[in-house]
Amino acid sequence: MPVRIHLDEQLHRRRMTLTELSEAVGITLANLSVLKTGKAKAIRFSTLEALCRALECQPGDIMTWVEGEEEA
Question: Among 15, 16, 50, 57, which is least packed by CB within 10 angstroms?
């Protein structure tokens, strides 16, 4: 997948668990796990905004596009 998700790094930086993030943003643990593993096909802007607010980061800190990689 050409878009990489860096949720683990942000969770580590904030010393936060996925469960704590789930509670903070009101997203199920299952849906956050799908996003964290890179298996999500889309993300709502409202979800991205909630993640950025909870993690005190910018969207580019959570996701990056990797040139030259093809989607599986």
Answer: 15
- For the entire predicted model, the pTM comes to 0.86
For 14-40, what is each residue's pLDDT tens digit? Answer: 999 999 999 999 999 999 999 999 899
Tokens, residue 10: 């942000």
